Amino acid sequence: MITGPSPSCYCLLFFFLLGDVVAEGSQKAVPEQIHLSYPGEPGSMTVTWTTWVPAASEVQFGLQIGGILPLRAQGFSSPFVDGGILRRKLYMHRVTLRGLLPGVQYVYRCGSNQGWSRRFRFRALRFGPNWSPRLAVFGDMGADNPQSLPRLRRETLQGMYDVVLHVGDFAYNMDQDNARVGDTFMRMIEPVAASVPYMTCPGNHEERYNFSNYRARFSMPGDTEGLWYSWDLGPAHIISFSTEVYFFVHYGRHLIKKQFHWLERDLQKANDNRAKRPWIITMGHRPMYCSNADLDDCTRHESIVRKGISGGRYGLEDLFYKYGVDLQLWAHEHSYERLWPIYDYQVYNGSRESPYTNPRGPIHIITGSAGCEELLTPFHSFPRPWSAIRVKEYGFTRLHILNGTHLHVQQVSDDQNGKIVDDVWLVRPREGRRNYL
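-> structure tokens emitted (437 positions)
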């Protein structure tokens, strides 16, 4: 005899769901999941946070740790309904602070008279090209097994970084458990993301419901909800884009063409502006090349990101080579790999003694080992001739844009208690406009 669930099962389920609602509702209007981003306008910073009920959106800020915060900025909120079966509703608040003094530390809190966050501190980004930004770079960090996060948090609060670049794949996955995993992850990164701009690009793990959790939770420059955008930081122009338009085509094949043409226009402007900002850096989730022992796109000789869709249309390698992109940051593979300067599988080192001094091709860095539930990705037994170094350890990358001619990359191993396991300088003479052709 087959019977349905007992009344007691229904009661347990009801109280489980009720308990979740009560937990979320106990302080419904108190901000949580607070994080910063740079909107691209000098002297500005955007604060984003979540509440569970509609509330005003205000940031109070000033220069003193204690006492009254004298400055005010107002913004707006918008409801976000997750696509899961419970259709959970969150309210996303966004406030942009303007008129910030370059390099000055500010204290802030966010919220409304219905509830305020605790106080956080951030340092406004400096203006212009004549300073030396320090960045932490990584991808593929999950809510489960985020091994590098404690070290990243300590170093951020010690003032070691001006910006964080998260190169796709968040939480694993933000939509899971009716977006509660996304909530957990955003709370986990708050000590870092509320202290420095946390700049992002989408990865494959954000795909559910047309990237809705990613688009709702982060506030990037431009008008594409963070799918692609660019911004200037010191002597560098940084371009963030979506490799995922090539793979999740059911959300619209037109996005491939739209992004590609935007990239070309942006690269043309950046290349024309080399005298002011000599470095062009890109960040996208799935790499063109890798030597990992899996079946990912980057292991294919004609990878989609590199060569484009049918007929070789909209491939990114030729585009990035044409406009002389200096450094390409990737993730997706749960490991670290640095390539020799490369184009179309040919190595173009600057010289035998100094391969990264005036290289004749772009540099690729794959940094997806921050830590997640999927663990690390193994490599093929023998490295490819274009692979300079491979590290199968948890960690993240430090990027120091020293000036217009020198750029420093280090890989930090969390497995080895913060040991530097890769250290390389990229050096280019300062010439107004440059490319590889």
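Helices lie at 7-25, 149-157, 176-193, 208-217, 254-272, 304-307, 316-322.
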